[in-house]
């Protein structure tokens, strides 16, 4: 006698497959982009939300990683609070401050959409 499968099992399997697919897509985008290639960026996905963690060289690369991850079709939201920028001996310049403000603005718009 066969045990009936839960109606939720196919949905959970589908969601898991989607998350693996999104993780692969984000990792590919990061590996192919010149700005993020070779950076120490880890990617995990849960329910369509991508979590970036690791260490990048500067704010420009961090912003680019966020942008690339968010551009992958199917990504609902990108959480990059665990993606850190390497500390430099000198304080961040005006360019990095502008990059950070642009990142914050993009993050706010992304959260407003969802």
Description:
This protein is an alpha+beta fold. It has a single domain (11-113), classed as Histidine-containing Protein, Chain: A, CATH 3.30.1340.30. The chain is built from 3 helices and 3 strands. The chain has helices at 8-32, 59-71, 94-113, and strands at 40-46, 49-56, 77-85. The protein has a 3-stranded mixed beta sheet. Strand 1 and strand 2 form a beta hairpin. Helix 1 (8-32) packs across helix 2 and helix 2 packs parallel to helix 3. The longest helix is centred in the first third of the chain and has 25 residues, at 8-32. The protein is globular.
Blueprint of the fold:
Elements: H1 8-32, E1 40-46, E2 49-56, H2 59-71, E3 77-85, H3 94-113
Parallel strand pairs: 2-3
Antiparallel strand pairs: 1-2
Helix pairs in contact: 1-2, 2-3
Protein name: Phospholipid-binding domain-containing protein
Organism: Azotobacter vinelandii (strain DJ / ATCC BAA-1303)
Pfam families: BON
What are the defining features of this structure?
single chain; 114 residues; alpha+beta; Histidine-containing Protein, Chain: A; 3 helices
The level 1 CATH classification is: Alpha Beta
How much helicity do the residues have? 40-55%
The helix/strand class is: alpha+beta
For the biggest β-sheet, the strand order reads 1-2-3
The 3D shape can be described as globular
SSE order, as H and E?
HEEHEH
Number of structurally distinct domains: 1
Q: How many H/I helices?
A: 3
Q: Would you identify the CATH architecture?
A: 2-Layer Sandwich
In percent, how much strand structure appears in the residues? 15-25%
Largest sheet: 3 strands, mixed
Mean pLDDT: 83
Distance between the termini: 45 Å
Low-confidence regions: none
């Amino acid at each position: 006698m066969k045990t009936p499968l839960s109606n939720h099992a196919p949905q959970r399997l589908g969601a898991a497959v989607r998350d693996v697919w999104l993780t692969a897509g984000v990792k590919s985008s990061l590996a192919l982009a010149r700005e993020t290639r070779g950076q120490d960026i880890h990617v995990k996905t849960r329910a369509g939300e991508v979590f970036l963690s690791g260490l990048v060289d500067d704010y420009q690369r961090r912003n680019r990683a966020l942008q690339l991850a968010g551009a992958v079709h199917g990504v609902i939201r990108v959480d990059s609070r665990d993606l850190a920028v390497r500390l430099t001996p000198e304080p961040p310049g005006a360019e990095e401050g502008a990059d950070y403000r642009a990142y914050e603005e993009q993050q706010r718009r992304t959260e407003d959409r969802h």
